[in-house]
Specification:
The complex is a heterodimer of chains A (153) and B (207). With 153 residues, chain A is an alpha+beta fold. In chain A, 18% of the residues lie in helices and 44% in strands. Chain B contains 10 helices and no strands. Classes of the chains: A alpha+beta (153), B mainly alpha (207). Chain B: Belongs to the sigma-70 factor family. ECF subfamily.
Chain lengths: 153, 207
């Protein structure tokens, strides 16, 4: 009489349930669609652009300007500088809150991300120019992510 | 119902024993690729973990529709809160834990609609079902099912969760199943022993 090992017994349990209460046929595809939709930002709340100002253009195509977005109680100030075809974003979030800021360039899948400091500041460097949006992901899991509308650098 | 049972004997099947590890590795791989910017990574993560979540959630006695909702809530939570996962190796555990918490919440929210406590009813059900199926138990798959099915309700639920999950949190599991915290380990051992006996009693080539 052979004693079945724990792993063998658990394998039997898995097999039995896999057969008797199988995953509904459509479920994996439906979950992939739901996850992709959530991932696509289509359901992410957008911040509103409330201010835009251009600073003096520097020599040889370097320039800088500021954008201000709001969403609920969160205020986001961005200073965007372009130099030699690359850009950098210095951001300030008020009130300061632990979150990850992700830059989503329009035409690439590269990911640039930064974590907000205690004082609410963050910086993203060496970004491409062109269409850009920022996704703000609070570390407080009870708070949903939100994003800026697309803006052009 | 019919199964194509191939090589299902008393011998251990190494492939199955190793399978859970493969699941968690694939989950971590998909998660890493997704976070690295590859949307196909998310697809793969969902494909490999959705069946695990399904079986864990269904152990909470939710209807199919309710179970599907819980699984979806879990995926949305992952996508929206990916920064909450600091260790990619732990993504599988994060998903099953999130799913179990949600399943427990939903199951408790709907218990008031149940006229009879499941726990009271449970001991009666398996034997009835086994009797109905006794005529067709010559099939190996039916025999294994009969063995699992005749286990006490608590054992069936506990073993289902333990079989599909990777080292579940015993403290939470104890609360979910209404058992003392320290008793999960011993209970699991007793449930496995009962299953061993049930397999022998239902015959087949395990003896």
């Amino acid at each position: 009489m052979s004693e079945l090992s724990r792993d063998a017994l658990l394998a039997i349990v898995r097999d039995v349930w896999t057969e008797r209460d199988p995953v509904p046929d459509h479920l994996v595809a439906a979950m992939q669609a739901a996850a992709a939709m959530a991932d696509s930002d289509l359901d992410v709340e957008l911040m509103s652009l409330v201010e835009r100002s251009t600073e003096l253009a520097g020599a040889r195509g370097s320039s800088a300007y500021t954008l201000r977005f709001v969403h609920g109680d969160t205020d986001l100030l961005l200073r965007i500088a372009v130099d030699n075809g690359r850009s950098r974003v210095d951001g300030w979030i008020v009130p300061a809150e632990p979150m990850t800021i992700r830059a989503l360039p329009g035409d690439t899948t590269g990911s640039h991300a930064a974590v907000v400091s205690d004082s609410g500041r963050f910086e993203l460097t060496d970004l491409p120019v062109g269409l850009m949006r920022l996704r703000l992901e609070p570390h407080d899991v009870a708070r949903p992510a939100f994003a800026t509308p697309t803006f052009e650098i | 119902m019919a199964r194509t049972g191939s090589g299902r004997g008393g011998a251990e099947r190494p492939g199955d024993a190793a399978r859970p590890n493969a699941v968690w590795t694939q989950a971590t791989d998909g998660f890493n690729r997704w976070v690295g910017g590859d949307p196909a990574g998310l697809d793969d993560l969902v494909a490999v973990m959705t069946p695990v979540l399904w079986h864990v959630v269904r152990a909470y006695r939710l209807s199919e529709t309710a179970a599907e909702d819980v699984v979806q809530t879990t995926w949305l939570a992952l996508v929206r809160r990916r920064t909450a996962i600091l260790d990619p190796v732990a993504v599988g555990g994060w998903l099953t834990t999130t799913a179990r918490r949600e399943a427990w919440r939903v199951a408790n929210a709907t218990t008031s609609a149940m006229p009879v406590e499941d726990e009271d009813l449970a001991p009666l059900l398996p034997r009835q079902r086994s009797a109905e199926e006794s005529a067709v138990q010559h099939d190996e798959g039916d025999r294994l099912w009969a063995a699992v099915d005749r286990l006490p309700e608590r054992c069936r639920r506990l073993l289902r969760i333990v079989a599909f999950e990777d080292r579940p949190d015993y403290r939470e599991l104890a609360t979910d199943l209404g058992m003392p915290v320290g008793s999960i380990g011993p209970t699991r051992g007793r449930c496995l022993a009962k299953l061993r006996v049930a397999l022998m009693e239902t015959g087949g080539d395990h003896r």
